[in-house]
Amino acid sequence: MKIVIAEPIGMCFSDLNEFIYNLENFGHELIIFEARPENDIELLNRLREAEIAVVSNLPISGEIIQQCSKLRLISVAFTGIDHIDVEQCKKQKIQICNAAAYSTLAVSELTIGLILDVLRKTTELHSHTLNGGTRNQFLGTELSGKTVGVVGTGDIGGKVAEILIAFDCKVLAYSRTSKAKLMKIGVEYVDLDFLLNQSDIITLHIPHTSETNLMFNKESFSKMKPASYFINTARGKVVDSQALAEALISGKLSGAAVDVYEYEPPLQENHPLLSAPNIVLTPHIAFATKEAIENRSKIVIHNILTWLDGKPENICL
Question: What is the pTM of this model?
Answer without folding.
Answer: 0.90
